[in-house]
Amino acid sequence: MSQAIGYSTTPPAGSSRFSSTSLYSTSQNPSSSTINNNPNPNRRESARSSIVPIQQQLFGGSTVQQQGNVNILDRSLNKTKNAEIALSTWAFLFAEVISYSQSRSDSIADLEKRLSTLGYDVGQRILSLLLLRNTQTSNLKDPKREHRLIPILQFVHTQIYKYVFGKPADGLERSSEAEDEYMLLLNESPLSQFISVPKDMSDLSCESFTAGLVEGVLDGLEVPARVTAHWVGDQYPDYPQRTVILIKLDQKVMDREESLGK
Amino acid sequence: MTIHGLWVISKAGGLVFSRSYSDVLPPQPVNTILTLAGILHGIHAITAKLTPTPIPGVPVGGLESFEAEGWGGKVFLTPTGTKFVVLHSIPQTGLDELMKRIYEIYSDAVMKNPFHTPEMPINSSLFETKLQTLMSGVNA
User: Fold this and answer.
1) Residue B112 is nearest to which of A194, A197, A198, comparing CB atoms?
2) Residue scoring higher pLDDT (A78 or B101)
3) What totals of helices (H) and strands (E) does chain B contain, helices first?
4) Is 0.90 surpassed by the pTM of this model?
5) Where do Polar residues bias regions lie (chain A) (predicted)?
6) Per the CB < 8 Å rule, is A95 touching B129?
7) Domain range holding A36?
8) What is the average per-residue pLDDT within B102-111?
9) How far is residue A72's CA from residue A57's CA, in Å, rounded to a whole number?
């Protein structure tokens, strides 16, 4: 469900729509392909040719122009492997994301859903990137991808969290009440450590973004689940910002696990 | 050195935060503190105006500290015009570092909080807890 929302609300949807029309139009609907397909490459080319002179005007030098011509998709994927950005940069960006989402939502649940939708898209991208990099560094001929539930959850707990937050999650627990519920614990999240939620919105957890991210990753690994974030800091005086990411797995996953056996 | 209290004064001269960290100074009603902060803001503006040889390009700082019998105040002006005023006992040491720490906590807990409106009273539990930890460290 959130997948559909993710595609409809985010800006990159325009570019993906563009590629899908050009893919389908040749075989399925020839008449529309001539209308739809032609203007797009033209527009793209005209846009590119108009950008270059502006860059020349702005920057002058030839080196800058060469760099400017390298498309983001043509750059080396591993160049940014160990790159990090300042925490403040992220904090200010995330604060702005929250204010933006808040001004466009009418309830706390709606705001959490918006943050979760943004996180979902991030999760999908991170999963593809990490899997590709893991394959490149380990063995190109024998790519590895987890398919069982527990290794997948451990992959999220260790690798995904390590990549996103710089350290693994502080715990992965199975709920004692329900079999299909797992919990990822984080004592202090780098994402929302500067945020203090006002009292009248105490239900809100800005970690919904992380929840969406986890949901995106799990969905990409064919483990559909409903992921929510809950603040439990009031029960742990030592960790006032402790947050639980609750993963409620789809019945389908539980059935599959059972049929696969031990 | 004991820290008696902290005021945060906005660019426009309004008091956006005030806390007392000791019971040495007589407690004042909020309205009195608001007035005092406003007067301090005015004095700061006057002293900035009276600076005899301003360096071109460098913003003119005004009042930096004041002293009374047994206690004093230190004023820290951020580049954006927010003022932190610390009321402390005399003699005092390490106030400059303390000011930098307060500024750091302010930028972390207040400016990075999406639920804070600039120039409005600070209503952040994180800001208060972090300050409380800092001040109890200094006052201990």
Assistant:
1) A194
2) B101
3) 3, 5
4) no
5) 1-13
6) no
7) 2-69
8) 91
9) 21
Strand arrangement of the beta sheet that strand A171-174 belongs to: A171-174, A181-186, A243-249, A225-231
Q: Which residue has the tokens 């394959």?
A: A135
Domain limit, last residue, from A41, A69, A97: A69
Average of per-residue pLDDT values in chain A = 74
Pick A99's closest partner by Cβ from B108, B114, B124: B114
Q: Are residues A201 and A241 in the same domain?
A: yes
The residues with which A244 forms a beta bridge, in sequence order, are A185, A230
Query: B35-65: per-residue pLDDT in tens?
Result: 999 999 999 999 988 888 777 777 677 888 9
The answer to whether B115 contacts A96, with C-beta atoms less than 8 Å apart, is no
Report the 10 Å Cβ neighbour count for A158. Answer: 14
Mean pLDDT of chain B: 88
Q: Where are the domains of chain B?
A: 3-139
Range of weakest confidence among A127-131, A191-195, B12-16 = A191-195
**A96 and A65, same structural domain?**
no
CA distance B10 to chain A (A): 20
Instruction: Please compute the mean of the pLDDT values over residues B114-128 and round it to a whole number.
Output: 88
Contacts of A201 in chain B (CB under 8 A): 115
The number of distinct structural domains making up chain A is 2
**A80-124, pLDDT tens digit by residue?**
777 778 888 889 999 999 999 989 988 888 999 999 999 999 999
Amino acid in the structure at residue A162: K
Question: Other CB atoms closer than 10 Å to residue A181's CB: what's the count?
Answer: 16
Q: For residue A114, list chain B residues with Cβ-Cβ distance below 8 A.
A: none
Whether residues A228 and A163 fall in one domain: yes
Residue A242 and residue A150 in contact, taking contact as beta carbons nearer than 8 Å:
no
**A191 and A238 assigned to the same domain:** yes
Judge whether A183 lies within some domain.
Answer: yes
Counting one residue from A and one from B, how many pairs have CB atoms under 8 Å apart? 36
Tell me the shortest Cα–Cα distance from B79 to chain A, in angstroms. Answer: 18
Domain boundary among A43, A69, A95: A69
CATH annotation of B3-139: 3.30.450.70
Question: What average pLDDT does this structure show over A231-243?
Answer: 80
